[in-house]
Write a structure and sequence with these properties.
Elements lengths: L7 E12 L2 E12 L6 H39 L2
Antiparallel strand pairs: 1-2
Length: 80
């Protein structure tokens, strides 16, 4: 019986949310090439690392967008 080898790991994370009257979607995709000598533990570690990176990127995108929207609101209030 032949054995399959993992050549790459790819994760995607996506978040959609409603802020005020607008909808925003944030997405991140990360891929890692796996060496032929990848052990099962290295695979599991890489999988967790990529999952964390991908989700953190989406969280960062959301945070920056919310900060920008808040700043725009504050700036528009100062004009009047």
């Amino acid at each position: 019986m032949s054995e399959f080898k993992t050549k790459s790991i790819k994760f995607s994370s996506r978040l959609s949310c409603n802020v005020g009257n607008s909808y925003y979607t944030f997405e991140s995709t990360i891929e890692k090439q796996c060496p032929e000598t990848f052990t099962e533990q290295e695979y599991l570690d890489a999988k967790q690392q990529l999952w964390d990176e991908c989700n953190n990127e989406v969280d960062t995108q959301l945070e920056k967008t919310l900060e920008f929207i808040q700043q725009q609101k504050q700036n528009s209030n100062k004009r009047y």
